[in-house]
Amino acid sequence: MMNAYIYQADVYCEACGADIRARAIANRSPFVPADPDDETSYDSDEFPKGPYPDVGGEADFPQHCASGPECLDALELDSGHTLGAWLDNPLTADGETYARSPCGEVGQFWRHAYGLSVVDGWCARCEARLAAHERSTGDTCFGCRARARKGGAA
Predict the structure, then answer these.
(1) What is d(CA 142, CA 108) in angstroms, rounded to the nearest whole number?
(2) Which residues in 54-72 are b (16+ Cβ under 10 Å) and which e?
């Protein structure tokens, strides 16, 4: 699981959250609290709070860094599409259903990252295409590659 920051109603990976904090301090933002470690003294709308382990707990959907393609730890898919860092957050039962649903490369990434199967045959074509790709190239799945980059088990 990845540590994350909460800022302005969004979730940021540890690298981006720390960067937002550092830039606010360097730019002498009036919102920088006297003691950033005293999170009771400021609001997350003004200055990032965190880092929090496990992205703050279970969610109803997979979470990626709110910095999107500009994320310092961005995830680039094989197609060249770039997402904010995958935060490896735990999912609720609804979140697992959600992660099983979408077609395409992002849906494949989520299913492999969480070790989920497709829902009622949804996107079976995409699953078959990814399996064929992995057999022909020897590449591992997107989720395993993301975990390996973060230093976790593949």
Answers:
(1) 8
(2) ebbeebeebbbbbbeeebb
CA max distance for the chain: 56
Residue-wise DSSP of 79-124: TS-EESPB----B-HHHHHHHHS--HHHHHHHHHHHT-PPSTTTTH
Tokens standing for residue 110: 């989520």
- pLDDT digit string, tens, across residues 20-51: 999 999 999 999 999 999 999 999 999 999 99
Mapped onto helix, strand or coil, the DSSP state of residue 23 is: helix
- Residue 20's nearest CA partner among 35, 32, 34, 37 is 32
More confident: 23 or 95: 23
For 57, which DSSP code? S
Predicted model pTM: 0.75
| Residue appearing with tokens 């707990």 | 57
